[in-house]
Amino acid sequence: MSGQEGRLTRGIAIICGVLALSGCGRSVSPPPAIDSPPAPTSSIEEVRNTERELVALVLAGEDEVGVIRSSLEERAEVDWRELSSGEAYEGVLSAFEEAPELIVVVGPGLLPEVDIISASYLDQEVVLLGGQIAEPTENVTAILWPGADDRAALAGSELSFEGGDRWGERAVQVALDPASSGREVITLTDSGLG
Length: 194
Known about the structure:
Layout: H1 3-22, E1 33-34, H2 44-47, E2 53-59, H3 66-75, E3 77-83, H4 88-98, E4 102-106, H5 111-118, E5 126-129, E6 132-133, E7 140-144, E8 151-152, H6 164-175, E9 185-188
Parallel strand pairs: 1-9, 2-3, 2-4, 4-5, 5-7, 6-8, 7-9
Helix pairs in contact: 3-6, 4-5
């Protein structure tokens, strides 16, 4: 092999290596929808999800959070915090600094704060129920359903949050399922329901 052919072969190998490392050529498919709820469990001990330490955050005054709150409290040890708009940033930051096993954010009211803060706490697992942030990191999973599927783009933008009473229990089951961790978006649908 001549010197020129050797340089060409090495050059091609380097380009292929760079493309492989940068992820070029990977196809990105949309996240799959969850068509049916997780299988029911046989006892309260199994349902409580091994007593995970969980902080749940919601903006004070958010409607349709009752079912979500009771479903969380049935399945985990929950520190439930309702934050006023004036304390939203500090309240969300405080939860991240405490480093619980899981932070659950209910509704779209705190999404701008989570979007800013979550990128600095990549080891903190976060689940958003009923909304998604503009630039999610791999530690943030959004659970969406019809009426609560907006993406927060700008602070102060009006986002819908409906159906929490209908979809809340199912959303909590999926949120606390370890298989949901690391997925960017999970969408709940009517398929398979009676």
